[in-house]
Amino acid sequence: MLNLVVCLKQVPMVTELPWDAKTGTLRRDLAAGMMNPACKHALEAALQIKEKFSAHITVITMGPPAAEEVLREALALGADRAILICDKLLAGADTYATSLVLTAAIKKECPKFDLILCGAYTADSETAQVGPQLAEELDLPAAAYVEKLEIHGRTLRVRRMVDNFRETLEMEFPALVTVSMENYRPRYTELMGLENAFGGDGVIVLGAAALGINASLFKNKGSRTKVRKVFLRKTQKENVILQGTASAVVTEFLNKYQRKISTAIGKSIEGKLNDEE
Amino acid sequence: MMKSKKKSIWVFGDYRNYYQNRVTLQLLSKAVDLAQTIKAEVCALVFGHEIDEWIMEYTAHGADRILAIDDPALKSYSTEKYLAIIENLAKERDPEIILIGATDFGREFAPRLAKRLKTGLSADCVGLDITDDGLLLQIAPSFGGNMLAEIVTELHRPQMVTVRPGTFKEIPHNYTRKALVERLPLMKKLPKSRVRLIEYERSVEKEHTIENASVIVCGGRGMGNRDKFKKLHDLARLLGGDVGATRPVVYSGWADHGALVGQAGKHIKPKILFSFGISGAIQHTAGLGEADFIIAINKNPQATMMKMADVAIIADASDVLKTLIKELKKRIRE
User: Fold this and answer.
1) Do B141 and A233 touch (CB under 8 A)?
2) Domain with A75 in it: what CATH number?
3) Residue B213 has what pLDDT?
4) Are B319 and A246 within 8 A, CB to CB?
5) Is A228 inside any structural domain?
6) To the nearest 10°, the Cα dihedral for A25, B251, A33, B104?
7) What is the phi-psi region of residue A253: left when phi exceeds 0, alpha when psi lies from -120 to 50, beta otherwise?
8) How far is residue B299's CA from residue B281's CA, in Å, rounded to a whole number?
9) A118 in a structural domain
10) Minimum-distance CB partner of B146 among A26, A244, A249
């Protein structure tokens, strides 16, 4: 039986946020959570493996108590076991620290894993670092941005696209992949399944101490980076409004912005006016 | 042997394709800048087989020193081999800063290297500077680029970042420049790669990904129907860009899931974004935080997308699309 671990992250759901249409910014601090989209694809890949082979899926997340929701959702979709790492002392961990904590949890709770699946990136910070850093911490062969997984015995074959190269890679279990959003379109949660998953207890909650992490020490020494400031990106909008027949607005638009478009596409669209004159 | 005490800024030589090579040159240019402020040397790393071309190019673009390993064993890119090599070199030479291009390769490689060197890393930076206290100021986007974070690595060295291609301008080459080229032997205990490259080919199907496209043509349900939506591809092709889609469009089967832009899909950062027939539901606009210049076309001037736009064109999206394609075909000169 294959032993799969899927790492999930709860990210803020933008629909629940006050949104300023003018500046295109949102209030993260008031966020409701959802399962990160790429993590959903990773879970889908695991579920498809489970459908084909005999497999057991453990889902793990680290976050506030509310992060339990994404674990419940994963259980409803077909995961077998769920672990929530939750400890105030771990709040604000960077990717370096997060991968340390996940490693401790995996070593404790699923030491005999064959394959770890993560989303290729998260919708909030988009660092795409936890997967590769987890591979490093657990000393595993790994591949990021995986679009397709095939398993032959103990060999994992993956396909991916990196920097315009289409690659096929092979490695032996145990291994780690991060799954891209190109393939493995997530299935919908059946309402019944979701209700059942929320009914049971099924989620194991672990604090730092249970993982053998000295959290007070960890807080200062765990993270390597420090955020000094976060600010909204402000851009100056042009606020131009064009109205009229299709041919009138297109001509007006192209005449006004021909240089800007030429620069962006690397081809000239300038000079039409002179040709006509 | 006495080691030089001078601080060093390393730039990882990523050269596998044109686009990767350009970002390396852009990083060299920024490294020259930073090096002046902290009085450091700029050092380029080049690993591979038959790499003289890159040694010459990095010298011409600002490197003071090149650490080169030229060996048939490094013929193809290998995360595991490069990790072992740089770990070894960094422990011996103690660089102050390591800059890596945020290519797909770099973004997979850099987190592992940072972990191995037990240091911090900021991903996909869009700006770099030196703080008053002499640290590398790492400006990284957050949440679809709607926010920026200023990050520092206070206590650990090297300070590491990946930097998004196109963030900095390369300095013009100067082939009379000289650099100290250290040709190093391949380390003796190079680990065997556990990841085997079975095959690879340069993809012909797509020149770039939608995340990196500089022009994107997005369409929503306001396009009317599937056939009219498909015309967006004609415009994208003319502009050398990509097509993006909203969620309703993807679920109607007008576009692939890979084209989905927004909260549940891709975050994009084009220089120019055309938005055809999109009302601007938050699920979609959450992915647009880094679009430089937005042109929205919609019959409804009250649509959120029209208010977010730099240029709002009040007209039927499909009509404007057809006319724009026709007009551009006349104007574009290769």
Assistant:
1) yes
2) 3.40.50.620
3) 87
4) yes
5) no
6) -70
7) alpha
8) 16
9) yes
10) A26
Total count of domains within chain A: 2
Say if pTM beats, i.e. exceeds, 0.90. no
What is the Cα gyration radius of chain B?
A: 23
Structurally, chain B folds into a number of domains equal to: 2
Picking from B276, B331, B332, B333 by the largest number of A CB atoms within 10 A of its own CB, the best residue to mutate is B331
Flag whether B178 is in a domain. Answer: yes
Contact residues on chain B for A249, CB-CB shorter than 8 A: 313, 315, 320
Tell me if A49 sits within 8 A of A4, measured CB to CB: yes
A43 is a domain residue: yes
Of the candidate ranges A25-39, B23-37, B193-207, B279-293, the one whose mean pLDDT is the lowest:
A25-39
Same domain, B173 and B235: no
Residues B291-334 pLDDT 10s: 889 999 999 999 989 988 999 999 999 999 999 999 999 988 76
Domain termination site, one of B164, B183, B202: B183
Q: Specify whether B20 is located in the same domain as B68.
A: yes
ipTM of this complex: 0.81
> Between chains, do A229 and B333 touch, taking CB under 8 Å as contact?
no
CB of A132 within 8 Å of any CB in chain B?
Answer: yes
Alpha-carbon torsion (B29, B18, B117, A98), positive or negative: positive
For B16, the closest chain A residue by CA position comes to A163
Whether residue B12 lies inside any domain: the answer is yes
User: Is the CB of B150 less than 8 angstroms away from the CB of A161?
Assistant: no
Distance from C-alpha of B34 to C-alpha of A137, rounded to nearest angstrom:
31
Give the span between the Cα atoms of B69 and B25, in whole angstroms.
19
Q: Does the pLDDT of residue A29 top 90, yes or no?
A: no
Boundaries of domain holding A89:
2-221
